[in-house]
Design brief:
Blueprint: E1 2-8, E2 11-17, H1 25-33, E3 44-48, E4 55-60, E5 66-67, H2 71-83, E6 93-98, E7 101-108, E8 116-120, E9 141-148, E10 151-159, E11 163-168, H3 178-186, E12 196-204, E13 207-214, E14 218-220, H4 224-236, E15 243-248, E16 251-256, E17 264-268, E18 270-276
Parallel strand pairs: 2-3, 4-6, 11-12, 13-15
Antiparallel strand pairs: 1-2, 1-18, 3-4, 4-5, 6-7, 7-8, 8-17, 9-10, 10-11, 12-13, 13-14, 15-16, 16-17
């Protein structure tokens, strides 16, 4: 089974070109993503044919659960599809069918090589039942209180096709105990489908930093949907403008949101290596 290893600012994935459901993908994701006994990755992505778009994708977390959305993975799929000849950009754009619908992507590079991708992440959603979160407040849910180990967190909740809870801090995000607090937020009873947890700091109208505890994966070097959720949450609080450079441990992404329509994510996508899985 031929695979491709790719990453978007350190958020790494194993990509497989497949035709359908011929495998137990959850089980395979657990095996391939294992960093000691497998290839090692933050997720397994299936690149699929699509009748609705240029290419389709499904993404599985290292714990075997299927993710609805993955921004860095989406950019990797776009680069893979163009590089492998599965999709030919029209006007520099291709479309990708995901679990949350068909999304558009714009490619940038020289001599046909895709180096950077700007993708639509869809329109953020704020209704509690759409995130989902078990809260009765009117949307958007800003500064929802969470008690974790005697510590009161205030999270802003948003769906980017998958659930997110964003907590803002004033000190550098590297000082926040994400590895201890993250799993407790992920599994908090307020979130019936678990949640991705972002700790974020606003550095200016056009600059932020963040770290992400990803549902089903843990702390990662980057998370595209998490970066978007952090920017959307900051926008809801009136802390930033419409275009933000957001720095994560693996590098920087650019997120754009006008407060009404689709959110856009831009950043690099890189090939690491190609291999053969024989287990």
């Amino acid at each position: 089974m031929r695979f491709v290893k790719m990453h978007g600012i350190g958020n790494d994935f194993v990509l497989l070109r497949v035709q359908g459901d011929e495998q137990d993908w959850s089980r395979l994701a657990q095996a391939m993503c294992d960093r000691h006994y497998g290839i090692g990755a933050d997720g397994l992505i299936l690149v699929l044919p699509s009748s609705r778009a240029d290419v389709g994708m499904r993404m599985f977390n290292p714990d075997g659960s299927e993710a609805e959305m993955c921004g860095n993975g989406l950019r990797c799929v776009v680069k893979y599809a163009v590089d492998e000849g599965l999709a030919r950009p029209r006007g520099g754009r291709i479309s990708v069918e995901t679990a949350v619908g068909v999304l558009s992507a714009q490619v940038f590079g020289e001599k046909g090589a895709v180096e950077r991708v700007r993708v639509s992440m869809g329109v953020p959603r704020f209704a509690p039942q759409e995130i989902p979160v078990l809260a009765e407040e009117e949307p958007p849910l800003k500064d929802l209180p969470l008690d974790i180990e005697g510590q009161r967190l205030a999270v802003t909740c948003v769906s980017m096709g998958n659930p997110h809870a964003v907590h803002f801090v004033e000190r550098p995000v590297g000082e926040f105990p994400l590895e201890r607090v993250g799993p407790k937020v992920e599994h908090h009873p307020l979130f019936p489908q678990r949640v991705n947890f972002e700790v974020a700091r606003v550095l200016g109208r056009e600059r932020m930093e963040a770290r992400v505890w990803e549902r089903g994966a843990g702390a990662t070097l980057a998370c595209g949907s998490g970066a978007c959720a952090a920017v959307v949450a900051a926008h809801l609080h009136g802390l930033i403008g419409e275009k933000v450079n957001i720095t994560l441990p693996g590098g920087m992404l650019v997120v754009e949101w006008d407060g009404v329509g689709e959110c856009y994510l831009a950043g690099p996508a890189e090939l690491v290596f190609v291999g053969e899985w024989r287990k």
